[in-house]
Amino acid sequence: MGRPYKIKRHKRIYRRSAGNIILRVLIIVAAVAALFGIGWMLYTPVSDWISQRQNPDTAVIGESSAQSDGLDVDETTSDQSGVSEETETEDQQQAVLSQAQTAYLPIETIADEQKFAQALELAKEQGYDSILFDLKSSDGTVNYPISYNPSTDALVTGTTTVDLNAVVQQIRDAGLVPMASIYTFRDHRYPSANNAAATQYMDSDFLWVDNDPEKGGKAWLNPFSQQAQDYIRKIVDDACAAGFEQIVLQGVQFPEGYSLDMIDYGEHASDDKHAFLQQYLQEMTTYAEGKGVELTALFPATSVLGGETKMYFGDVSTIIGDSAVLDLRLEVFGNGIQTDLLSIPDPSADLYNTVKTASAAVNQQLSGKELTVMVDGSGLSEDEVASLIQGALESGIERCIVFEPSLAQ
Questions:
Q1: CA distance 395 to 388
Q2: Exposed (0-12), middle (13-18) or buried (19+): which is 215, by Cβ within 10 Å?
Q3: Which is deepest, 7, 162, 205, 366, by most CB within 10 Å?
Q4: What tens digit of pLDDT does each residue of 196-224 get?
Q5: Cβ–Cβ < 8 Å for 254, 222
Q6: Number of Cβ within a 10 Å radius of residue 108
Q7: How much is the pLDDT for 99?
């Protein structure tokens, strides 16, 4: 019998090495990860395709739109932020300009052809939309060739006059709105031209004056006088006929000054003077409206904020109709004002805050009325005027008159 063969068994061929196992695991994990990544990449376009199929009008905007233009997403965001900030700044500037709507010019500028043409051009450039000037000034001077009464016309007409029709047309040609300012009962000229329209001392034919004549005392119109009222209405008629679109009445008040108790109002002595002013303003507003012209009146801002109201004989806010102009010039506040509604100890210290504080106070006190404020422009730069207008804007006032702004190159 031959030698038997011994078969050697290698058990390793029946088991996998640890390295092979790890390798296979890594391969499987990698395959799963690859499949997962492909699925993730396909999810968004597939989802968008399904969405578009279901909602064909909906646009899909993603980061790829920014990248397709060769822009990095961060750069796009940065550019948009810059545009937004720039737009916001332009909007703020436009808001300021839109508030600086009316330039209140002196009659000397209106009467000088060259200065007036330049003023209109600059007013337009600086964002004003209207021009205001006095047809009858604070002393009663009429600034155009009035034709009312041959015996009095020359006495009330000033040395510097303008052709109202020509001026209105010039303002319109510049793309601006013509506005007229008319002082009413604050008038120191017509009383001397027509004593019957003036205030007088009791039991006499002497004109009452607001101070010692040696100290510049002046006569005033008598608000109760029909002749005084007719004279004012004549000037309103002339403004309407010339084409002024808005009229601002000033001096709608009873006289102020010394010895008020010595004025003789005759049969109207016991009349309610406050109610009279209210009725007068309502009648004049309605009268102008009938001619297609908007009319309002100007009052010192302090008169509605607890300040001096003797010349109105009561609460000014009840005299004001649906609209009013409030005077916020420094001269109105004097050395300061301290009332329950407003405290400004030094108005000249910070003009911006003075206008802003006073605007907010009158806007609250006269809530619901269409308000305009008048601010100083004389001697101020364009930027300084813009800051005053901004103060009014921030307080909710939507219209501003700038008194004698600098409109010269």
A1: 11
A2: exposed
A3: 162
A4: 999 999 989 899 999 998 999 999 999 99
A5: no
A6: 12
A7: 54
Positive or negative: CA dihedral 350, 354, 357, 360:
negative
User: Any residues with CB less than 8 A from the CB of 161 and at least 6 apart, and which?
Assistant: 111, 142, 143, 144, 145
Which DSSP category does 258 fall into? Answer: S
Domains of the chain, residue spans: 16-49, 109-117+126-271, 295-409
User: Domain 295-409's class?
Assistant: alpha beta
pLDDT in tens, 252-299: 999 999 999 999 999 999 999 999 999 999 999 999 999 999 999 999
**In this structure, what are the phi and psi dihedrals at residue 258, rounded to the nearest 5 degrees?**
-90, 155
CA dist., res. 291 & res. 54, Å (int): 62
Three-class secondary structure of residue 149 per DSSP: coil
Tokens 């507003």 appear where?
Answer: 285
Q: Please tell me whether the overall predicted TM-score, pTM, comes out greater than 0.90 for this model.
A: no
Query: Which pLDDT score, from 0 to 100, does residue 307 have?
Result: 77
Task: With H, G, I as helix, E, B as strand and everything else as coil, classify residue 211.
Answer: coil
Q: Which phi and psi (to 5°) does residue 244 adopt?
A: -65, 135
What is the per-residue pLDDT across 117-160, written as a single tens digit (0 to 9) for each?
A: 999 999 999 999 999 999 999 999 999 999 999 999 999 999 99
Whole-angstrom CA distances from 69 to 73, 75, 139, 284 are: 10, 11, 69, 65
Instruction: Give the C-alpha separation, 232 to 239, whole Å.
Output: 11
3-state secondary structure (DSSP) of residue 378: coil
Distinct helix (H) and strand (E) counts, the chain: 13, 12
